[in-house]
Amino acid sequence: MTLKEHQLASLERDGFLVLPDLFGLSEIQLLQSRLPALLAQENPANIIEKASGQVRTAMGIHLRDEIFAKLAHHPRLIGAARQIRAEPLYIQQVKVNVKAAFSGEVWQWHYDFATHHHDDGVPEPLALNLHVFLDDVNDFNGPLYFIPGSHKFGAHRAVHDTSTTSYPLWVVEPTVVREMIANAEAIDPNRAIVAATGKRGTGLIFFDTLVHGSPVNLSPWDRSIFSLILNPVSNASTRDTRPEFKHHRDFTDVQADADDCLQYGAG
């Protein structure tokens, strides 16, 4: 897949880009079929929700399943990332974020670089988050909320929240969020906050300083999203205080697999 000029311009303007139908139904069904066993594992890389006991995020998933390993090397993701960052990239993090029906909890307003910098010692906000929707994502089952253009605020102050959820997170204070939303609203009153929705198979790319979050899932529909974070090798982490599954320390330049790698399944 090659991103078109207008797509690259949209990404630069908004800080995120939605790519409908990036993966086909049979590819997504294969990925979905692998999830139940992975989520059922008693593994520290499966982070459990604070209240429900459901899995919140399944991390290091490409090291635990060969199909998700193929997705982490898929050329539709790797190729897009290389257009945006034309230099060697390593796999920084791979996970599936899960919001179980009726019980998926909030992700506070945050930007990823705050965690990458404070916890992992990543020098600059150059990482790219590449998502794939494994379920249909609608307005009611906990979609990602983005503040368009908030990536242009850069690496501003964040606060370490260790109590709201089971996952410690560097979050953005409400006063700063309010300012960013007002800025986005001044540009386009209809896009002060954007919910990233779409059918399963939708792709999503966003920058490391884009402020985002997601609400609780009060709906009867599960919402699972695959996330691959790629970071330039030249910008690699300088700290190893977190477990490997939270920030991988193999700084090898990632190589793309064949485009049809998901069509043949395991083996």
Question: Care to describe what's here?
Answer:
With about 270 residues, the chain is of the alpha+beta class. It has one domain (about 5-235): q2cbj1_9rhob like domain (Jelly Rolls). The protein is built from six helices and 13 strands. The strands form three sheets. Strands 1-11-6-13-4-3-2 form a seven-stranded antiparallel beta sheet. Strands 5-12-7-10 form a four-stranded antiparallel beta sheet, with no helix packed on it. It is globular.
Put the structure in a nutshell:
The chain has 267 residues and is of the alpha+beta class. Helix content is 25%, strand content 24%. It has a single domain, classed as q2cbj1_9rhob like domain (Jelly Rolls).
Helix content: 10-25%
Estimate nothing, just give the exact number of structural domains: 1
**CATH fold-level name:** Jelly Rolls
Termini separation comes to: 25 Å
Shape: globular
Q: What kind of oligomer do you see?
A: single chain
SS elements, strand count: 13
CATH superfamily: q2cbj1_9rhob like domain
Query: Beta-strand percentage?
Result: 15-25%
The first-level CATH class is given as: Mainly Beta
| Spans where pLDDT lies below 50 across 5 or more residues | none
**Which second-level CATH architecture applies?**
Sandwich
Task: Describe the main β-sheet briefly.
Answer: 7 strands, antiparallel
* Number of continuous helical runs: 6
What is the C-alpha radius of gyration, as a whole number of Å?
17 Å
- Category from helices, strands and their pairing: alpha+beta
Mean pLDDT: 95
- Element pattern in H and E: HEHEEHHEEHEEEEHEEEE
Strand order, largest beta sheet? 1-11-6-13-4-3-2
